[in-house]
Amino acid sequence: MKDRMAQAIVALRARLNESAVLKVVNRIEINATPAEVFYWLEEPDRAKQWITSVTKSEIIKETPNKVGTTSREYIEENGRGLEMEGVVTEFVALKALCERQPES
To answer: How far is CA 1 from CA 33, 41, 48, in A?
Structure first.
C-alpha cells in the first residue's frame, strides 16, 4: 500500500498549472479510505516513512485553510540531492490536495 500511496503523491505533486511548459498528470486507485490516505498527505514529515528518497520534509509557511501553504522536501537518490518546494493550490479535506512547484 505504501508504494501505491507514494506513486499517488508523486503524481499529485507533479501536477503543474495550465500555463506550464510541461504538465504531468497521473491517476491511481488506492484501496484505502480517504481518511487513511489523507493521514499520509496532510503532514509532510510523514513522507519520509513511505517515500524512501525523502530525507527531510518541512513546512515553510502554513495557512489556516491549507491553500497557500508552502513546504520543502529534501530528496536523495543515487548519491545525488535535490530540494523541492511546493505550494498547496487546492485543498478539500478528505477529497483533494493539489500542489505545484513555484517557478524559479
So the answer is: 12, 14, 15
